């Protein structure tokens, strides 16, 4: 009778049934599959196959009583071997034959079983996917893994040959062609012995069934390490070079100190060592001069990693950013002082004390703990920045002199990366400080009557660089204020310095009372002709806190957004313009004039608030509008709205610096203004005086009547004398009283001292002597001359009483052709 084959799963159920098994036992496949093995084996003990069949599972042949379908029993030779199952569990492959007539005689079976159990050579069986289905104890020892850990694993997952994958190609060739592989010598490392090079002589042959089907491969592996020293030396060199090359791509990928240290420990463990740590000198982190090494050295651990089994030894490499102090005379102190590494190939209590606390009582290494140790200095640019440690477990080959060279190379590469990161951090710190100093302080961005201001600047955590974003609030004449947000291209000290220069230039031009378009035109020329400045974008808005008029001009910047009292939003339709410094020639900027409704908020921002990688900028602007939308909670401060907006949008994934400036136009009933036009005729002067008297009376400012009449008469007289078209006057009451006279004469007046006998030329001198401030500025249609007076203290010490009607202009004399609330220049 032939040999019957069947398989049992890990629970003892029949999972495969051959035709010979049907002939042997009389059970069909349908009757046998899924049944427990006690169907076949008489008096079978309960439990899983490995426990129930005992030594049979290790490959020994045993005579056992089996039960046939008709209930009869007979003695047979049963042989079982471990079988890997798809789910990672282990079952049994069983063969059963008749005692005296089996092709596989008892002697042959005993020989095969003894060979698997006692052979000093590695024996293994692979399936068609090169997965282990059977290994003997010798091969398991070669690979440093148990028999069970082999089963189901691929060859490439267990053995790493130094031939770049040729080993597996040879094995697949044997499967495909049937040509055996004889005595091929390989330099290998196994998963269980990653630090140990071995030389193997391997032979493999194809296994086929009786019908010619390919079942897998059988292999014989002989350890020839002692005979192949040259091969192993070459393999060790290749392994070290490979580690150094891998370190170049895996360590120092960022410019962050802690991350660089973590990259080294993650790379080294467990590939090179079982534990690693990186410590840097405390004065290195401080960025100052290194203190003398004649004193104890203080370090900070940036990173640590360990897979040591002993908990106490593992704690020596904890990733805890702990501080350490190494006294003079300790080996670690000597390493920092001299820059020389040290190696301990058999760690003792003194070594552990030097790692832990040189002053603490010595303790022996733990069982299966630290066996060997290397301490190497972090040397960069002639300085020792700290140290790196590598440790191996006592059950691995100890670190040796060749490993010491590799450790020094890894330490040197890491030190350069750490020093670069420190210099980058120092440069960034300077750039951030420079940028912060150049941004306006809190006292510079406080609001004024008729204007609430809030701002937010952030260098996002996702970006290690500093940008050229900025914002500004610049007080101007005549209740006006300039609101600015801009972005200087670049992310370095040069960008921050360029931003500072641009901000200074903008302040200077703004104080000249230039129109917004003229200011950006001159600023564009400055950026073009300054080697220190790169291209920049900005929005420049001039807002009048009394009239609520706002003129906005854009230089290639994202458009402002206006939020109304009810929470609705709109994009201000300002011409986008081109960035400053592009140098296109003949660049023209365009101003848009709007009036901010009461309790509305103008939002200026840089692209860092709205730009997202892979998204159009329009999507970001809509996200901004959505975050701004909806009615504000009662009593919500403008700064809360500003900070909340940044939090909402940056959490969506922003990775750039950003600046936000918000300006709210609150309700100010005490503010009022009047504007009217009159012909350039002498008769206009007395009419203006009459208008002044009536208006100031309505505003409860009679105390200023004589002064305003006098100064207004001087300015209107000058305009009547020199203007060709109508003269426009405006009086505005805010925190002060501002009077403006505009005409079409483009010549700006200047102050001169009249001689004693001159009949003219004293008007501006008089204005300059009496007014708190005065000045003149150019506008598109000519010029504006203005003066400012403080409001008188009201009776009883309270604030001035708001006139009835708030902002409604006073009635003009009938002779005036026009009166109303329109723009006067830039507001």
UniProtKB/TrEMBL annotation:
It is an enzyme of class 3 (hydrolase). Residues 1-40 form the PAS domain. Gene3D superfamilies: 3.30.450.40, Histidine kinase-like ATPase, C-terminal domain, PAS domain, PPM-type phosphatase domain. Keywords: ATP-binding, Hydrolase, Kinase, Magnesium, Manganese, Metal-binding, Nucleotide-binding, Phosphoprotein, Protein phosphatase, Transferase. The keyword Manganese applies. The lineage of its organism: Bacteria, Bacillati, Actinomycetota, Actinomycetes, Kitasatosporales. It holds the Pfam family SpoIIE. The keyword Coiled coil does not apply. It catalyses: O-phospho-L-seryl-[protein] + H2O = L-seryl-[protein] + phosphate. PROSITE patterns: PAS. Its EC number is 3.1.3.16. It comes from Streptantibioticus silvisoli. This is protein-serine/threonine phosphatase. Primarily acts as an independent SigF regulator that is sensitive to the osmosensory signal, mediating the cross talk of PknD with the SigF regulon. Possesses both phosphatase and kinase activities. The kinase domain functions as a classic anti-sigma factor-like kinase to phosphorylate the anti-anti-sigma factor domain at the canonical regulatory site, and the phosphatase domain antagonizes this activity. InterPro entries: Bact_Sigma-Reg, GAF, GAF-like_dom_sf, HATPase_C_sf, HATPase_dom, PAS, PAS-like_dom_sf, PAS_4. One of its GO terms (molecular function) is kinase activity.
